[in-house]
Each structure stands twice: as structure tokens, then as C-alpha cells.
Design goal:
heterodimer, A: alpha+beta, 2 domains, two-stranded antiparallel sheet, 17% strand, B: alpha+beta, Beta-Lactamase
Chain lengths: 66, 147
Amino acid sequence: MPPRKVVTGFLLAAGSLAGSVLVRRRAARKRERVDLYADDGSMHSFAEGTPEADRLLPIAHDLLRA
Amino acid sequence: MDAAQAIDDLKEISPQVRDVVVIGADGAPAGSSLTQESAVGRLADGAKRLVEAAEAMRPGVAQLEAATLGGSVFVVRDGDRVIAATTSPEPTVGLVFYDLKTCLRSIDESQPPANQPAAKEPAAKEAAAKPARRRPPAQKKADDAAS
């Protein structure tokens, strides 16, 4: 296979991968979530639908509505 | 620095922040960007409920962000004191946490907590009390030339 085609194919694959990562990241940011940061530096993230988020998100909604 | 000044500074440097309340060690609001006492109480109570619920799930929570499609709620603890803020959607999380911590730590702990919302100071007094953030251009040029 000519080197030029290999490079083109590689660039297309890399572009597709980068695009899909960006789309997934943007989609993830549009979901509601709660992030808890502990004293020891650890972080727990709870997306909507989890019991933790379902307990905390309604309080946040109340605050933002006020 | 008093709470009103610290909150004014926070609102100035962090445009993503909408409403802020500082809760003192006694659990009462020590300052807020909100003017209505009922709104201050609502934000403070909600922040305390968030912290209590989070603490029940994961003991040792120092700060939290609840991100919704309509905006985010941030709560930061520093000892017995708490600062809570609402922001616009998709804020710059690290910056907001940093600004909230800076605001909370800049408030003099010896300040007696006030239940009243932070009152706006006259502009002249505010300007006199606020430290200069940047050197004036003329001074900067002189300093740069000297170095």
C-alpha cells in the first residue's frame, strides 16, 4: 500500500477517534451529577439515577429554583 | 476582611457565581450576596441539608458540586464554616472551588456573624478599602525599566 494512503487512513482514524471522544465528553457533561470531594483528596461522582444523586439533586434543584 | 467585602470580591472575579451565602461556625448566615433575608435563609438551609446528606453518604466531605442542567450548587467547608454558591450551567469547576475557598478564608474569623445580608458599601469607601490588584501602567513601566 502506498505510504500516502497509509498516512491518510491513519489521520482519518485519529480524527474519528478524537471526534467521538469529544462528543462523548460533551454528552456526559449534559447529565446531572453530584461530585463529593473528601478531606483525603478522594472524589466520588454520582450520576443521575444513582441513589446518592437522587437524594442530593432535588435539594440542588430547590436551591437553583429559588 | 468582612464577609460583605469578601463576597463582593468573589462576585467581581467570578462571573459564573450567581448567589452566595457564608455560614458561620454557629450555623447562622454570616453574609450573602442576596438581599432578602428569606432567600438567604433558604440558600443557607439548603446548603446545610446538602452537606448533611453528603456526610451521611460519604463521611469527611470537604466540598461538593451538584451539577444540574439549570446550573450548579457548590458547597465548601473550612473548619466549622461553610460557603455555598449557585452558578450558571457548566461552570469552570476548579476555578469556582478555588474562588469559594479564597473567599471563605479571607473572611476574618473573629467577625461576629450577622444575620443580615451583606450590605453594599458606598463606592468610594469600597474603592478605598479594596487593595490594588494590579499596578498602574505608569508604575508598572517604571518597575519594568528598573528591573
